[in-house]
Amino acid sequence: MIRAYLKERRSWIVMMLALQGLGLFIAAVDPMIPVLSMLYVAFLSTLLFVIFLVFRYYKETRFYKSLLQREHNLDMTTIADASSPLERIVAESLTGEIEQLRQDAAMNRLLLEQEKDELLAWIHEVKTPLTAMRLMMDRMQHDPVKAQLHVEWLRLHHLLDQQLHQKRLPFMENDLYIDAVNLEDIVVQEIKTLQAWCIQKGLGFDIQLAVTEVLSDAKWLSFILRQLLSNAVKYSEQADITILSEQRRQHTVLLIRDAGMGIDPKDLPRIFDKGFTSTTEHQNGAATGMGLYLAKKAAQSLHIAIDAASTPGEGTTFTLTFPKRNEFVTTQSM
């Protein structure tokens, strides 16, 4: 604390030394002024200045030292210095409550970690029967029942996938592997997983990718596109979904455009909020309001700007703007 105090007062010290040096210099060049007298004056004034600094140091740092002691000792100094039994009782009660709150917070963190691990383990366990169901459906004959089962299986699979990525999202930085990613491969793969749903709804895709390579994480980029494509399929009826990429101001831009019901203007600023479903389709109990929220959070970690534009009754366009290669490398190295 002494070093910090002297650093704050260095302008005073420099000014004082400069004045003393100026006085001695004048005495040295002016024969009318005795040098020894000026040395005596400089010594006394410097001594007084040092005493002043010491006095101000103890006066100004006394309060901050007491705060540090309270922080480390949980206000034990206040308890010892309490002047009345009532003050002592109150101080002891507050100290006990603070310690209890700290213990409760540590216990809650431990319980949350255990709950997260148990949920992740449960999700992985559920994936096993889902895989078995998929194999059984593949062996079924082509009929309407198989198509309907496939669609419901796909919805369940996406809900579990959302839960899995939601729990991984806080630790997403530990799971990133940034490399050159082929956009066409990821888009086609995600469309294949939605194939049964699209056939049932009579939807097609118009893919026009002028730029096919971006710098990103393939797994998390697939998750983002999965949320946007499933959202487009969900709210579209018998129309093509357009997917195109282009170069804008040295940024790669990917657009996903549907011709669905669109988004109400008053809902548009809130569609990426956690838990927000819709005001026009508020009765839809199947909506969770998590897909676009998770896509936005994942996009932020990948430094991808995600935006939406919509006209009610005409459709919605989601835009992904990827960072420049040098911008991404600079951000990752900070």
UniProtKB/TrEMBL annotation:
Q: Where in the cell is it found?
A: Cell membrane
Bilayer topology: Multi-pass membrane protein
Q: Which residues form the Histidine kinase domain?
A: 121-326
For this chain, one GO molecular function annotation is: ATP binding
InterPro entries, sorted: BphY/WalK/GraS-like (IPR050351), HATPase_C_sf (IPR036890), HATPase_dom (IPR003594), His_kinase_dom (IPR005467), Sig_transdc_His_kin-like_C (IPR004358)
Q: Return any one Pfam family short name.
A: HATPase_c
What's the EC number here?
A: 2.7.13.3
Q: Name one GO cellular component term.
A: plasma membrane
Give the transmembrane ranges. Answer: 12-29, 35-58
Catalytic activity field: ATP + protein L-histidine = ADP + protein N-phospho-L-histidine
What name does UniProt use for this protein?
histidine kinase
Gene encoding the protein? bceS
